[in-house]
C-alpha cells in the first residue's frame, strides 16, 4: 500500500520509520535538572522521549523530529534546544 501525503493507515506506526533526519533544531536534556514530572514524555507527539534503564528520561534521536514541544513543556528548563549541525 502506498502512503499518499500525510495519510496514516496504521495508527501508532511511527516507530517503524526513523524520522530523526528531519530535524533542524535538536533538544538536549539535562538529567540533573529534571524533576521527573513526565511532561516531556506525555506531550511528545513522536514518542521519542523514553525512560532509560536508570529511570531517567532521555531523547531517542532516531525518532525525534525537533518539534521542541518538550522544551516548551518542561517547567524547570531541563530540556533546551539548539540548531542542529550536520
Automatic annotation (TrEMBL):
Gene3D superfamilies: 3.30.70.20. Its cofactor is [4Fe-4S] cluster. The keyword Iron-sulfur applies. Heterotetramer of one alpha, one beta, one delta and one gamma chain. GO terms for molecular function: 4 iron, 4 sulfur cluster binding; metal ion binding; oxidoreductase activity, acting on the aldehyde or oxo group of donors, iron-sulfur protein as acceptor. Residues 25-54, 55-84 form the 4Fe-4S ferredoxin-type domain. The keyword Electron transport applies. Pfam families: Fer4_21 (PF14697). InterPro entries: 4Fe4S_Fe-S-bd, 4Fe4S_Fe_S_CS, PorD_KorD, Pyruvate_synthase_PorD. SUPFAM superfamilies: 4Fe-4S ferredoxins. Keywords: 4Fe-4S, Electron transport, Iron, Iron-sulfur, Metal-binding, Pyruvate, Repeat, Transport. This is Pyruvate synthase subunit PorD.
Amino acid at each position: 500500500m502506498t502512503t499518499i501525503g500525510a495519510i496514516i493507515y496504521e495508527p501508532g506506526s511511527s516507530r517503524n520509520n526513523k524520522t530523526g533526519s528531519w530535524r533542524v533544531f535538536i533538544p538536549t536534556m539535562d538529567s540533573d535538572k529534571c524533576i521527573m514530572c513526565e511532561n516531556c514524555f506525555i506531550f511528545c507527539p513522536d514518542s521519542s522521549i523514553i525512560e532509560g534503564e536508570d529511570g531517567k528520561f532521555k531523547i531517542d534521536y532516531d525518532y525525534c523530529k525537533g518539534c521542541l514541544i518538550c522544551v516548551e513543556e518542561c517547567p524547570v528548563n531541563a530540556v533546551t534546544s539548539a540548531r542542529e549541525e550536520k
